[in-house]
Amino acid sequence: MDIFDKIKTSKGGPLGQYKSIAHGYFAFPKLEGEIGPRMKFRGKEVLNWSLNNYLGLANHPEVRKVDTEATEKYGLAYPMGARMMSGQTTFHEELEQQLAQFVKKEDAFLCNYGYQAMISILDSLLNRNDVVVYDSESHACIIDGLRLHMGKRLVYPHNNIERLEHQLKRAKQITQHTGGGILVVTEGVYGMAGDLGKLKDIVELKKKYNFRLLIDDAHGFGTMGPNGAGTDEHFGVSEEVDIYFATFAKAMAGIGAFVASTQEVVDYLRYNMRSQIFAKSLPLPMVIGAMKRLELLKTQPQLRQKLWTIVKALQNGLKEKGLDIGKTESPVTPVYLKGTPIEAGNVVFELREKYNIFCSIVIYPVVPKDVIMLRLIPTAVHTLEDVQYTINAFEEINNNLKAGRYSKESIPFFSIPT
After folding, report:
1. Maximum distance among all Cα pairs of the chain, rounded to whole angstroms
2. How many separate domains does the chain show?
3. Among 13, 201, 214, 322, who pairs with 161 as Cys (CB 3.0-4.6 Å)?
């Protein structure tokens, strides 16, 4: 059998099967212009709710200035090589110290990308004698990292603490035979539904089951907690989180990630994370730019306050109109509708073409077959006028959907011009 034969028979996979009608519009769309609430989509201005730019730092004048100056001074190549070999700089070390101090850990290790870093963290920490217990709605990077684990993997239903304890009992029995340890993995903020990991309940189990806790706080870093230091700060359990991980791709509007823990653990990861040992160092302009972003995150709390003003107005307004936003407790704002894939396509088509609103759509297999999820990402640079316009549009869309207006193939996205 030719290895490519399965590609021909798979119809493109769960998402790729929609390529002929989705590419360039629903999948791989092009948003153009300066990053912000108003951007161009297919040559037309749209109100954009689909960017991970929580604090509005992407086009903050101080950020743009530092990014530009650092690029002019160092270029995008420096430093060349992996950090272990020739890519280490004082700036990389300084950013790590600042991050560790901010999240109240002894040390931090800077990583190139969040996805590859999480995979490599899990690969480094776990051996075949260890047991990992993880939430069923963990991000794809966690799942992919766990696929490398040669030992036992035990999953518990999302945020179900009773089932988590059941799996911890199993893990304890297994490790009594293997001599390994137990790692629990959860997220701070779940990026699709916006609900929070039950960190307080999880840390309560640590004394009883003697495990270590790793949290992926990609959406919580910069948005949650009194100082924006994350979901563990929000719950007041920072000291009980053994390994804290976050990315710059959300609140920091940049590239990169970091993992923070004790000096001993971070040193171990620094010398054992294959994705960093064998990868080129993060370019210096991105490191220097990240320091400016972190500075603004710490010194301009009004950015986070403005974000939450927009979040509350949007979420409360949607709920008042009878729209289902699930159990979100974070800026992530899902809107759940009932409908078929055809109706989902027509809903998004009308939002973009009639109302000039751009947001992300999520359908099966990410959500159940009869569910349409529209995900809105509020930012500090949206306005209350943007919020009200969007609430009114979603109310009309929901009414049209209930009336059956989107059930026909004749409105549609099926004839979208290329």
Report:
1. 63
2. 2
3. 201
Q: How far apart are CA 45 and CA 154, in angstroms?
A: 47
6: in domain: no
Comparing C-alpha atoms, which of 284, 288, 228, 290 is closest to residue 256?
Answer: 290
The reply to whether 110 and 215 lie within a common domain is: yes
SS3 104: coil
Task: Encode pLDDT of 26-66 as tens digits.
Answer: 889 999 999 999 999 999 999 999 999 999 999 999 999 99
Cα–Cα distances (Å) from 106 to 200, 264, 277, 329, 348, in that order, read 22, 9, 21, 29, 46
Mean pLDDT of the chain: 93
256: tokens are 């990169």
Per-residue confidence band for 94, with pLDDT thresholds at 50, 70 and 90: very high
Alpha carbon distance 402, 411 (integer Å): 16
Residues 123 and 239 in one domain: yes
How many helices (H) and strands (E) the chain has is answered by 17, 14
Q: Tokens 């035990």 identify what position?
A: 154
Residues 139 and 257 in one domain: yes
Nearest Cα to 295, choosing from 94, 51, 87? 94
How far is residue 180 from each of residues 130, 213, 233, measured CA to CA in Å? 4, 15, 30
Span 270-329, pLDDT tens digits: 999 999 999 999 999 999 999 999 999 999 999 999 999 999 999 999 999 999 999 999
The continuous run of DSSP H or E covering 315 comes out as helix 301-320
Within 10 Å of residue 151's Cβ, how many Cβ atoms?
16
For CA atoms 57, 58, 63, 64, give the dihedral sign.
Answer: negative
Q: And the tokens for 124?
A: 């480094």
Residues 232, 286 within the same domain: yes
Same structural domain for residues 282 and 324?
no
Nearest Cα to Cα of residue 330 among 219, 214, 253: 219
Distance CA(132)–CA(128), nearest Å, equals 10
| Whether the Cβ atoms of residue 269 and residue 123 lie closer than 8 Å to each other | no
Same domain, 201 and 73: yes
For helices 301-320 and 284-299, the axis angle rounded to 10 degrees is 70
Instruction: Establish if 3 belongs to a structural domain.
Output: no
CB atoms within 10 A of CB 1: 5
Last residue of a domain, one of 251, 274, 299: 299
Distance in angstroms (rounded) separating the CA atoms of residues 362 and 374: 6
Instruction: Answer whether 193's CB lies under 8 Å from 327's CB.
Output: yes
